[in-house]
Amino acid sequence: MAKKRRQRSKEWYDRHRQDAFVQRARQEGYRSRAAFKLEEIDRRDRLLKPGMRVVDLGAAPGGWAQLASNKIGRHGILVCIDLLPMKPIRGVSIIQADFLDQDAKYKIINALGEQKADLVISDMAPNLSGITVSDQARSLELLHGVLLSCRSLLRPGGDLVVKLFEGEGVADFRQACSRDFVCCNIRKPDASRARSREHYLVAKGFRNEVVVPVEEENS
């Protein structure tokens, strides 16, 4: 069993090393190939604009943050949060914490200058155990956490981009997003591996009809 795992790991590493997007990320100075997923989504949906306030939930290692920072420019505000440490990016606020924690929400709002974000982005994925049911449940927990966070962090009319893995419970999550946003679409960027279950939900026009105070979210 251990031998098979080592073989699969080697095969994955070899594919990863030869991946065109991995090579391009190295050439262009991005920390991960994921930057090109956001780039393609942004090219299609026109989300990132100069001067925007953006929150990146689960930002490490920072590929999305690098791209977003370049797009919003020096007059924009980008706040990144992750449980994992993340190398600094010039002009970007980085918070090492669980985005679901109440104190973390206060820190994000403070870093935004006491204003709401124009855009929330999230390329988060749970640590995978290999047990499909458990992994999907954890993924859904993160998704609903992101949606709940929008109620305290995102301005009315703002937008959301979040990664999801197709499977049980995702249809219900999409319905929840449709209630909170005017328009929701699913994207599968070319930089996403063809065999991957990952997709991205692009939700526009946050309704924010029910404002949830930060202190009540975890009560």
Quick description:
The protein has two domains: 1-29; 31-214, Vaccinia Virus protein VP39 (Rossmann fold).
Q: Could you explain how this protein is built, in words?
A:
- The chain folds into two domains: 1-29; 31-214, Vaccinia Virus protein VP39 (Rossmann fold, 3-Layer(aba) Sandwich).
- The chain is built from eight helices and seven strands, in the order H-H-H-E-H-E-E-H-E-H-E-H-E-E-H.
- It has helices at 2-18, 20-28, 35-45, 63-72, 102-111, 132-153, 170-180, 214-217; strands spanning 53-57, 77-82, 93-96, 117-122, 154-165, 181-187, 198-206.
- A seven-stranded mixed beta sheet has the order 3-2-1-4-5-7-6, sandwiched between helices.
Fill in the keyword field for this structure:
219 residues; Rossmann fold; 2 domains; 8 helices; 43% helix; globular
Chain-wise SSE layout:
Elements: H1 2-18, H2 20-28, H3 35-45, E1 53-57, H4 63-72, E2 77-82, E3 93-96, H5 102-111, E4 117-122, H6 132-153, E5 154-165, H7 170-180, E6 181-187, E7 198-206, H8 214-217
Parallel strand pairs: 1-2, 1-4, 2-3, 4-5
Antiparallel strand pairs: 5-7, 6-7
Helix pairs in contact: 3-4
Number of domains: 2
CATH classification, class level of the largest domain = Alpha Beta
CATH overall fold name of the largest domain: Rossmann fold
Report the CATH architecture of the largest domain: 3-Layer(aba) Sandwich
pLDDT averaged residue by residue: 88
Q: Rounded to an integer, what's the Rg over CA atoms?
A: 17 Å
**Widest sheet: strand order?**
3-2-1-4-5-7-6
Overall number of strands: 7
Q: How helical, in percent, are the residues?
A: 40-55%
